[in-house]
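anyone seen this seq b4? input:
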Amino acid sequence: KRSTPEAVEAILAGMKWLGLDWDGDTVFQSKQAPRHNEVAASLLAAGHAYPCYASKDELTEMRELAKAEGRPMRYDGRWRDRDAADAPKDVPPVIRFKGPQGGETIVNDAVMGEVRVAHDQLDDMVLLRADGTPTYMLAVVVDDHDMGVTHVIRGADHLNNAIRQSNLIAAMGWEIPSYAHVPLIHGPDGAKLSKRHGALGIETYRDMGYLPGALRNYLSRLGWSHGDDEIFSTDQAVEWFGLGGIGKSAARIDFAKLENLNGHYMRECPDSELAAVASPGIAAALDRALTEADQARLLKALPGLKERAKNINELVENSLFYFVDGAPELDQKAAKILDQDARERLGRLMPILDVLLDWQAGQIEAVVRALAEAEGVKMVKIAQPLRAGLTGKTVSPGIFDIFQILGREESMARLTRVAKKVS
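predicted toks r here
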């Protein structure tokens, strides 16, 4: 029921966004059902499987008895060696694997080490349901064999499945793959990662503003290590990775660490690539498409913006003042800074700026510094009101870079609107 076209597309789109490519065509387990049935038939013919006619009521009775006795539910094998003549008429059976009895199965796991499970702890698992559809336990074994899979690397919650699947593979006379069961990822509180921790599907991390390269790096390091290396490229991860570097204990996701790593990747990202990632979010926030002039301004602004952002969402939010139509709305702190004295001082600065021939950050800074010295005030007394007037905030990239990026006309228009509010 969960295998909807939308769910499948989310998996493939998520892998593409994350930059994880795969070999060959996508294989759908559901389309391999005839092959799975063929293997089940061969197991029946060889005596390694049998039809089971246990009813739902009988299975419920087994489950309730196990619960009352405080043990896990296990099918009791009542149809394992029963004569087919006893089968009820018109009742389609399930097909169960005739697992080994007595002794134990040993799996030498590349992460967890030697794992032993006694056969009396296992029941005869279902291979085909009553409607003929294969179960995961049969399908995954057949598909792995047919695709030439040599190593099965998966979550530690599948370790018990490795025991069951090894017995099924042995019954078919196939080579058992190397198993490596990786500890699960826990939330910051140490509990198993779940919806309450806020991030599950890959698309969630994309929407939180993380870059694919940063997430690949972080996930590679989560539960695996290569000495003290924290930041490394995907090519380095491919070169260095080995099962011996995987720890046995569960890893905890640390969003603060992920944010810091993502900030590093943003600073290292070429501006043209970062602009392509950020543009859709900016357009959505403005509720309009970005013009060519907007795109050019964004490229000029990115060196300053990416120094102060740890994710794309922050970068988008911090960039919006560059693209607003009209004066940016003042936040509470900015409005407080723009008091009577500040506005009057801006009014005295504007005529000087208006005749400045070279509209460059350095030249603008020199003019502002000269006015501060002339009026006997600290530079911040002018710089902060300028920042508030141009951006609507008290925190931003370098104020003189903002002058240069906005250009003379837009900068003066914004300051004029602020200065005019002098009562």
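The CA atoms of residues 403 and 411 lie 6 Å apart. The chain has a mean pLDDT of 92. kinda curious what u guys think
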